[in-house]
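Support reply, case 0932

Customer input (verbatim):
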Amino acid sequence: MDWGWFSVYGSGQVMQCQNKEELLQTMQRIFEPVAPTLVFSLAEPSSDFSIEIKPANDEGFLPVYWQHFGVSKDMNTGNPLYRSVRVNSLQAAEGNQNESPKNQNSTDNNMVAKAEWTPTPPLFEGSPQENTSWTKKIGKDLWISMPLVLYSKDGQTYPKSSKDIEAFMTLEEQSTATDASAISFRYGNLINTWNVFQHFYPYFTEMGIDWVKELEESLIRTYTGDSDGYMDELRRLTSALKDNHVSVRGSESPYFAPPIDVAWIEGQLVITEVYDSNLDLTPGDTVEKINGTSPQKLYKDMKPLISAATQGWFDYTAPILMITGQLNTEFNITVAGKTVSLKRKLNYYAQKDSIKSLTPGYKFLENGIVYLNLDAVSMDTINQIMPQLEKSKAIIADVRGYPNSNHDFINHLISKKDEHKWMQVDHFIYPDQQDIPGYSDFGWDMEPKKPFLGDKKVIVITDGRAVSYAESYLGFIEGYNLATIIGQPSSGTNGNVNSFTLPGDYMISFTGMRVLKHDGSQLHGIGFLPDVYVERTIEGVKSGRDEFLEKAIELAKQ
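Our regenerated output:
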């Protein structure tokens, strides 16, 4: 079953209902082909309500139910950590690449022999209660009841639907909306999105999110909106998650930029880099208008559209979105009263990566100080300069960005084997994250390596750009007290990313697991706080100074 399509189809059907009786009949009708044991009602079912889900002769039947390790069902491929299985459903034996045991009794030589299919084993301990119904009120005067454990034999659950699913989908697809011009399409994608997070997002409690309220408000806005605002409505809904890994993207990249870079400094949009010498712009220039609108107004308008766990991440992201857009589009900025026309012709992030590749990964400074730009330097290079690091008096490690796969450097700072478990993947067996039976926890299991560098004075620089892998790095720095941290709080989001694609090729990503600080305290929405705070200034940009590095050198010399 294509649940993305079904959400759109179901929305279109429900929107035609004139009263609650029609709603009840419609819900029962559209779900019957795919879930014949699911029952809707206009009143709460009695405590002894039951659905016949087990045949009188149950020989050879096995209980089947879903287990989710994080979630992979209907997610995009690419992250093998997360998994979903339907326990005891038939799966191909090792070496058998066929996807389904359907028609496995066929005499066709291409079909897989029945003996080559085996029951899917569980991922973890725990299963929903058998012979009971999960019941919940899902709307005004509307209830749902369904068993979470069914019984299956030879790949067919009991009872079998009276309708053929493929024939049902083929027929109904003819009248189902296929793009955002239809409100049922927008509603379907909105509902699909909301449900993914409702059942699997790990940070509702920590971030104090009223997710039901967010859905209600989003449905109202969508009803009064149109297709032009559809992407922004998905962004508005998901921004409430306060997750730096959340992004909503269409088929075309909106991240093309003119040959400049900008940052939010002292409440102003400031040009920090100019990559085209023909532009009459200079680092340190303050942008007064973008297409006639002040950056301060744009900044305020973007607040409900950016999923940001911390202020630092919002301040990093908002300026990028102010200047990026579709390839070859043009816009005007006003600087010092003059208008400058700019064209978006560079992929913003590709340009940053290109600059990173040309950035020196390390510097030997005076007074025996070595500077490591962890955003750029490779572990091979760190190993090459290890003799100099061993002789140094102080090491400055810069984590204002995303480290270049060089976390093995941490092994040279720790003095004992690391046993901290700071990543957690929840086990789900019930809807709405109810009665979670447990979780699996992980760490990096780091071990000390020679030469030992932890006896040096170590200064780590960070700010609100440090996200995900960078915060894994910082977790060790803080957790084992390996350095003095200076700068600004990190972004406050870590964990393997998961993602899914909606009809229309709209992709949404999010954090699929819970990550804590090494002492077990909350990281998400807080970040790692510096021991010494440093502020970036407009004057510093104008004069070409790195005030964070200057402070780090000052501390290293003490």
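We compared this against your earlier run and they match. Two observations from our side: The chain has four domains: 3-173, 183-246, 256-351, 358-557. The longest helix spans residues 183-200. Please reopen the case if you see a mismatch on your end.
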